[in-house]
Design goal:
By secondary structure, the protein is α/β, with parallel strands linked by helices. The protein folds into two domains: 38 residues; 249 residues, Rossmann fold (3-Layer(aba) Sandwich), CATH 3.40.50. Helices cover 43% and strands 18% of the residues. Strands 1-2-4-3-5-6-7-8 form an eight-stranded mixed sheet, with helices on both faces. It is globular.
Length: 293
């Protein structure tokens, strides 16, 4: 039987359509796979409040008492959705004090599998015994600068010790801090030998005598155009090497201070730095806090 030209043409076009459809499906699936392998990162400051509203995870305020005192630390806790016990990560806020952005960072850490605990380190220090919200204008920065290392350590120890008693917590803990909180992350690592890891975002390190006391691996993430801080990185790295202390550091070209909070600034440099730094942060935390990951 001889087929007509129309039949042959229809058969040819059907094959073309099938190939095209398969190609589109492949592209769509590839894009989906690429999207799913790109880690989510915390929102910038403008998107933080909405991210908290939209979060499906459980978050709550708790009060943590400093032992042998009447001081209560107002603390935000974000819980992951997982079937086993989770490591604890203490989130140390910037010089601006407690904010929705800090809480959103904690929520993203929870999304990544950690119990994130973010204390308002100004709790009880403000007018009428308030915390960050009780300060007006720039007085919050002045108050934070007055927090001594001993007071900082007492507050962070109380929060860490309390979080490790949660039924859903494992026995592993780390800290992560930003700006003033980054420097505080260094300080806490020199004073709390029970930490398994510490992460510093654009914060400066203490001197040699303090660094000798570090017992955990350190990760530092810095902006290439934040020379006030970044100029200290190589001397710190050399000192940590001489002390035989593990310290991994990344400097992101073109990024400024506070790049994780200000992702839309400096063209695309801050956004690229934020993506890369958060990926490194998760890899680092999982390496040192997750026994099977």
């Amino acid at each position: 039987m001889v087929r007509s030209d129309r039949a042959l043409n229809n058969q040819y076009m059907n094959k073309i359509h099938a190939i095209a459809a398969a190609g589109l499906l492949f592209i769509a699936c590839s894009g989906w796979a690429q999207e799913k392998t790109t880690p989510e990162i915390p929102p910038d400051s403008a998107g933080a409040t909405q991210a908290l509203i939209d979060s499906p995870r459980h978050g709550e305020w708790i009060e943590v008492q400093i032992p042998n005192t009447e001081t209560l630390i107002h603390t935000w806790v974000a819980y992951p959705e997982r079937s086993d016990k989770a490591p604890v990560v203490i989130v140390i806020h910037e010089i601006f004090g407690m904010s929705d952005w800090v809480r959103a960072v904690a929520d993203q850490l929870a999304a990544d599998g950690f119990i994130a605990v973010a204390p308002d380190l100004l709790s009880g220090m403000g007018p009428d015994g308030g915390g960050t919200n009780s300060f007006k204008g720039d007085t919050v920065r002045e108050a934070i600068r007055k927090i001594t290392d001993d007071e900082l350590t007492a507050r962070l120890n109380a929060v860490r010790d309390h979080a490790l008693t949660f039924p859903s917590a494992s026995d592993k803990s780390a800290c992560i801090g930003f700006c003033w909180g980054g420097t505080s992350s260094w300080t806490f690592a020199t004073r709390q030998p029970g930490l398994q890891a510490a992460v510093v975002y654009y914060g400066t390190a203490p001197g040699e005598e303090a660094l000798k006391n570090i017992r955990c691996p350190m990760l530092g993430c810095y902006g290439g155009d934040d020379n006030r801080v970044t100029s200290t990185v190589e001397p710190t790295a050399a000192l940590m090497t001489r002390l035989d202390k593990p310290y991994t550091h990344h400097v992101y070209e073109g990024a400024g201070h506070g790049f994780l909070r200000q992702q839309t600034a400096r063209d695309s440099a801050n956004a690229k730095a934020a993506q890369s730094a958060w990926k490194s942060t998760l890899e680092f935390l999982r390496e040192h806090l997750e026994a099977t990951k």
